[in-house]
Amino acid sequence: MSGALLPRVAVLDDYLHVARECADWSVLEGLCEVDFLHRQLQVPDEAAQVLAPYDALCHLRERTPMPRSLIERLPRLKFMTVTGKAHRTLDLAAATERGIVVSHVSAQEMPSNATPEMTWALILAAARHVAYEDRMVRAGRWQNTLGLLLEGRTLGLLGLGRVGQKVAAIGRAFGMRVIAWSPNLTAEAAAVHGVVRVDKEALFRDSDVLSVHLVLSERSRGVVGRAELALMKRSALLVNTSRGPIVDEAALIDALASGRLGGAGLDVFEQEPLPADSPLCRLDNVVLTPHLGYATRDTFEGFYRSTVEGLLEWLQGQGGSARAIHGRLHP
């Protein structure tokens, strides 16, 4: 088969130029042509133009949305791989109508401690003003703030799933009292993890550190709003490593800017990448990171190894990975 007839594959959003080194792509030689795309494409127009020649697309989490308006403009597209547990910005119905196979190639590949560790990096950085004091030291200033001692304080968890449970265990190791609330959490389920189940109002009122660990859905969107933030202690910290839209960003900005809330550590935002002119970027009492919760070398190696495996299965005519997405997408 001549090279011109081989299927063309685009590996999307390789911002860090690491996809090639994280897996053995040589197993695909002679079966397809692989291009690594290193910048974000604007959807739908720029993405439609750039991606039109490709037969397969390999996604890294949800970095490139795939709405119907884009899918319908990709005439050659036959196969997509998706990493992570969900792709909330992919229109699965539109792909299915087109006969495009969508393979969820890495449901089990993300190290389970990646996001809990990032959560605690932000908690500690916010509690001890690490980012701010780093800037001050570089500017020749010395000791400008007093930190928050975590021992003996209350850690509140908005959600006690896989990530929340690990965050809770670390909180207990710091000598913190751990409380939690979510719509379906029972006292018995919380107690298994050494956590006290409280009602929603008590969670916001009593927490010295409130960490968000809900899955984004229509029910959880905006669940942390002005009323909830108003319940929190003026010294309290809010940390979000889940999804930006769970927290009303405008309300959070107002609370931080007014001193109504002590501080925050944010790894996720309503719009990603976070615009440079966001008011969050002008606040000294917030630590900002670019959705690093899952971004470890171990995670990326797992993502890209499974991506190669999924491509190989599809190219060999097996119809994609057995771990295909069958169902629910989150808007």
From TrEMBL:
Transmembrane segments: none annotated. One of its GO terms (molecular function) is oxidoreductase activity, acting on the CH-OH group of donors, NAD or NADP as acceptor. Coiled coil: none annotated. Keywords: NAD, Oxidoreductase. Residues 30-318 form the D-isomer specific 2-hydroxyacid dehydrogenase catalytic domain. Residues 121-293 form the D-isomer specific 2-hydroxyacid dehydrogenase NAD-binding domain. It comes from the Bacteria. Belongs to the D-isomer specific 2-hydroxyacid dehydrogenase family. PANTHER family: D-ISOMER SPECIFIC 2-HYDROXYACID DEHYDROGENASE FAMILY PROTEIN (AFU_ORTHOLOGUE AFUA_6G10090). This is D-2-hydroxyacid dehydrogenase family protein. It comes from Ramlibacter aurantiacus.
